[in-house]
Amino acid sequence: MDEAKAPLRIIAHDQFCVEKKSQPCGFVIYGASGDLSHRKLFPALYELFKNSLLPAAFFVIGFARKPWSETEFRQEVAGTLGSSEDEAQKAGEFLERVFYCQGDYDSSEDFGRLAGMLRDLHERFKTRGNMIHYLATPAEVYQMIVAGIGKAGLTPHNTAEGPWSNVIIEKPFGADLVSATALQHAISEHLREEQIYRIDHYMGKETVQNILMFRFTNSIFEPVWNHQHIDHIQITMAETLGVEHRAGYYDCAGALRDMFQNHMFQLMSLVAMEPPQGFDPQLYRDEKVRLARSLRPIPEDRLDEFVVRGQYGPGKVDGIDTAAYRNEAGIRPDSNTETFVAMKLFVDNWRWAGVPFYLRSGKRMARQTTEIAVVFKSIPHSIFPQISANQFSPNVLIFRIQPDEGISLSFEAKHPGPKLCMATLKLEFNYKDIFREEPMEAYERLILDCTQGDQTLFVRQDMIEGTWGFLGKIINRWEAGPGEGLVPYPAGSWGPEASRMLIEKDDRRWIGE
Ligand code: NDP
Question: Whose CA is nearest to atom 29 of ligand 1?
Answer without folding.
Answer: 136
